[in-house]
Amino acid sequence: LNNSTISAWYIVGNQSSEQEFNGLNLGVSVTNSKNNFNDIFPKVNQQFPLFTIAENTLKLIQNFPPLSGFFGNYQLKTNSYTLLNQKIGNVETDNPLLIFNEQPTKKNAILFGEGIWRWRMQEFLMNANNDATNELINKTVQFLAVKDDKSKFRIILNKSFFENEALLINAELYNDSYELINEP
Q1: Contact (Cβ atoms closer than 8 angstroms) between residue 175 and residue 181
Q2: Which residues of 44-82 are buried (b: 16+ CB within 10 A; e: fewer)?
Q3: Tens-of-pLDDT digits for all 184 residues of the chain?
Q4: Coil, helix or strand for 82?
Q5: Helices marked H in 3-155 — which ranges?
Q6: Predicted TM-score (pTM) above 0.70
Q7: Helix (H) or strand (E) holding 30
Q8: Closest to 145 measured CA to CA, from 4, 8, 3
């Protein structure tokens, strides 16, 4: 899978090997974990540029239960974007919990914790639905599935028109996950 051009979502958990993970060269490395694990709470990175998530979802994510993941030093390389950082107890860190990266031939998402099923259970307990976790999972999969050769700026107009006809030009602007954005 690592040598193919297929995009992938990696979930690094308690049974993952630090050395084998680092050998995949996915744009991030973990060192000095010594197979120690932490309970990791999610902390949303408000500066995440790849796609948008509803404000309600961002608020709910902050209250989700912890995942279990490596305790160690994380080093991000280029083309990596962090959506969720690690919060250990009350200490907010710069260590990534959920990152996305783009390589020349494919995209990857990496979740540094196992137990995402707890998020769905907690959300259903709080709201009687799974809208926030579904949105997070759907946006992740959409980012991974989109091909890079699409234009982010599109102009829509008729190829031909009459001399006395009004000319109507429409334009669309998309973010990196090809979601239509209207702000600009």
Answers
A1: yes
A2: bbeebebbeeeeebbebbeebebbebbbbebebeeebbb
A3: 878 889 999 999 888 888 888 888 888 888 877 777 889 999 999 989 989 999 999 999 999 999 998 888 888 877 889 999 999 988 999 999 999 998 778 899 999 999 999 999 999 999 999 999 999 999 999 999 987 545 778 787 887 788 888 888 888 888 877 788 877 7
A4: strand
A5: 18-23, 55-61, 117-127, 131-145
A6: yes
A7: strand 28-31
A8: 8
